[in-house]
Specification:
This protein is α+β, with helices and mostly antiparallel strands. The protein has three domains: 41 residues, no CATH class; 84 residues, Alpha-Beta Plaits, CATH 3.30.70; 55 residues, no CATH class. It has eight helices and four strands. Helix 2 runs antiparallel to helix 3 and helix 6 packs parallel to helix 8. The longest helix is centred in the middle third of the chain and has 18 residues. The protein is elongated. The chain starts with 37 loop residues before the first helix and ends with a helix.
Length: 193
């Protein structure tokens, strides 16, 4: 098999595990470097960076500083309980580290920085967790709900769905306090088309 060559668009390269790799047509006296691609090693070319702050102002400042500091893609923010907001960056490892460092410094100046972390070459299945879910903000009309499907959902999923349903009888923090039976009864009480 002929040696793989580095694509011209790549800025970095590495040698194979041995210091030189022979090509098919080479003899023992002439050696050439073999370009090893990330795919050869089973690596993803991207990293996931996370900056967690307490409050929205620190998160916005972290996002702004991160995208200005490095060539990264801002995946968005994710809000959690107690005012925690996580900013997510995606890009190559060095760029994500630079973005996270800049974002952490900026968030620390204006808000309360909670945690930072960079995951180099995350497993492909983590993309399901890391990617923004546009459906989470989509409103759902109550005539599209099926009782059999609702009965199979976990309480966490029922609460998430309740927050997205138009005219749901339980509002605000009461949704978080409601149990499974109370949520299912509220879903059944919704008028159907």
């Amino acid at each position: 098999m002929p040696a793989r060559r580095r694509p011209s668009a790549w800025a970095s390269w590495s040698r194979s595990t041995s210091s030189h790799a022979r090509t098919r047509n080479s003899n023992s006296s002439s050696r050439r470097e073999r370009w090893v691609t990330a795919a050869d090693r089973g690596w993803s070319l991207e990293a996931l960076g996370l900056v967690e702050t307490r409050g929205l102002v620190g998160a916005l400042e972290a996002a702004d500083a991160g995208v200005k500091a490095a060539d990264v893609r801002l995946l968005g923010t994710e809000r959690a309980d107690a005012g925690l907001v996580t900013v997510k960056f995606l890009g190559d490892v060095a760029a994500v580290k630079a973005a996270v460092d800049a974002g952490a410094a900026a968030a620390g100046r204006v808000g309360q920085l909670v945690a930072v972390h960079v995951i180099p070459r995350p497993h492909e299945e983590i993309g399901v967790v890391a990617e923004d879910d546009d459906a989470s903000d989509t409103r759902i009309s109550h005539d599209r709900l099926d009782d059999a499907h609702l009965a199979q959902l976990r309480v966490v999923e029922l609460r998430s769905l309740a927050r997205r349903v138009d005219d749901f009888p339980i509002k605000g923090r009461d949704v978080a306090r409601a149990g499974r039976d109370e949520l299912l009864a509220a879903f059944r009480a919704l008028p159907r088309a």
